[in-house]
Amino acid sequence: MIIQNAACIPVYLYKDNYRISLHNEKLKGKKINAMLGLTSEGDQIILSPYNMERLVSTSDLNNLSMYLNLIDFKGRQTVNDLDLRQITSPPEQSEYLEIFLNQHFNLENSYISYKNIGNTESELILLYIFYQTRKFNKFNDEINGTFTISIDTTSNNENIKLSNYVDRTLSKLPIKQIITQMNYDELSYGYLDIIGKNGERLEYLPLYFINDYRSKEIYLDGIVIDFEKSFYCNRNIVDYSQMDPNDINPIVLTFIY
Amino acid sequence: MKKLISGAINIEVKLQQGVNRIFFPDNSVLRGKRIKHISVYKAQNDHAAFVTLKELNTQTELIKSLPIKLLHFSDHALFINKIVDLPHSYIDISQITEAQKVGSYTFIFWYDEPAIWSKIPEKNNRTEIHPIEIKLSGPKTYFAENRDLHNKKFQNLIFSMPNFTPMGNETTSYLNCFLTLCKDNLEFIQRVPLEYFVQGGNDYQLRLQNITFDFQRSYIETTAPGDYGKSIFFNAIIDDNKKK
Q: Rounded to whole angstroms, what are the CA distances from A60 to A25, B160, B162?
């Protein structure tokens, strides 16, 4: 999948409700390319980048019976009752279906229907909506060059500016892919919040989506990253004060251009 | 990556004691058709049985002694791409003990069916997604007519098992269920285990070549009476590209 922009939407599924609208101001007028959900899985607890709340576990998704419904501006229901689990990915796997939407939707009228029969009052998933604000570049996965940074984390909830780690001479390169090599046992979870110099925005892109474990790769549409305005956002369940600093591995990110 | 297909036929081959080489039965639908993939479904002794396929045009055994273990329908399904002379193709079971020569092998031949397929636009970047629900009523349940999907071009059928369908019905598992899709009188998808339509865990999904089918002639068979009254739920991926 090649992405240009991503909006990270927290979706709360309340027990006494059955439908949630996808209305979102930042997506108004945007052409939607694809969507992807993110959940926790078992003891791999994923925290929301917004408020450190736990995302629902894949095993509890069955209690939700969630369906995605997307309606275009002519009132046509292009996506009708798609089982949301088909496009929802736990951290370690890329067990999701790639869907190709590539059109404008009336998100005010679009919605997720669900039936929360679980024991909790509300469940949270993150829905990533990939959209475009300009024409896509012609894609070529040939590597022109790479550079790698290692980010040291000191707290389980911190935002670290990427420009602290990236040489200025590298800041004009159109990035095609970012890859990390996370070891799931280390519980080093976080997100990349990226702003492009041509107006692109990748909002809280989870490291799990770009981990080299995953067989489904996510490419970027040649984004020239504004490293001054872009961050690695550590959202880790581990209590850093209880840990030996030597046991905390840095976050390694490889940028491919 | 799986190749585009527009047909799939279930062929059962019975093992026989005292026989080391079992020929495939002739199948009128597969005659002269290009086979894209062959998969074997839940096979016993898959390490000790070997398939030999004779190509129709050259009458040569181009695929020789292929272990059927390699025919499990994984993400890396072998691309056969041959017109096969089925009655002259066979399975070598000489390495299986006589006592174990019981039961049968179920093969699915995934093939090109020119009567069904249509071209997928080169820039295939728009799809519609629709639900299809079939409430099982007996050993054989036909699809209900669906006017919204009449003559639509299907690129995939994704089996899904949420607790409840959008209609609020309880769902059942793919186990013991088989799908047959029919266009006019042609059963081009014939008794294919529903398990092959569970695709969430696959890196590469099935690729149907913009097929169309008649809902009221197509059906699901189940061998589990306990499933009666429960629903099978699919999400259909449908071509939504503009026609040129």
A: 30, 16, 11
Mean pLDDT, residues A170-174 taken together:
93
| Phi, psi (rounded to 5 degrees) for B201 | -90, 5
* Residue B121 included in any domain: no
Is B217 a domain residue? yes
**What is the phi-psi region of residue B26: left when phi exceeds 0, alpha when psi lies from -120 to 50, beta otherwise?**
beta
Least confident of A67-71, A138-142, A245-249: A245-249
Rounded-to-integer distance, Cα A6 and Cα A220, Å = 11
Q: Are residues B106 and B131 in the same domain?
A: no
Structural domain ending residue among the three candidates B55, B77, B111? B111
Residue A257 C-alpha from the chain's centroid: 21
A62 contact residues in B (CB cutoff 8 A): 162-163
Q: Which of B86, B111, B136 is the last residue of a domain?
A: B111
pLDDT in tens, B23-53: 999 999 999 999 999 999 988 888 899 999 9
Q: Which pTM value belongs to this model?
A: 0.88
CA distance A70 to chain B (A): 9
**How many structural domains are present in chain B?**
2
CA–CA min distance A144, chain B (Å): 26
Q: Which stretches within chain A are classed as H helix?
A: 58-61
What range does the domain containing B87 cover? 4-111
Closest CA to B210 of B145, B155, B162: B155
Question: Measuring CA to CA, which residue among A226, A224, A47 is closest to residue A125?
Answer: A47
Whether residues B131 and B234 share a domain: the answer is yes
Same domain flag for B79 and B137: no
* CB half-sphere exposure, A250, CA atoms < 13 A: 10
Q: For B164-218, write each residue's pLDDT tens digit.
A: 999 999 999 988 999 999 999 999 999 999 999 998 767 778 999 999 999 999 9
Q: Are strands A2-3 and B34-41 parallel, antiparallel or unpaired?
A: unpaired
CA A4 to chain centre: 12
Which residues in chain B are contacts of A64 at CB distance < 8 A?
A: 162
| Other beta carbons within 10 Å of A141 | 10
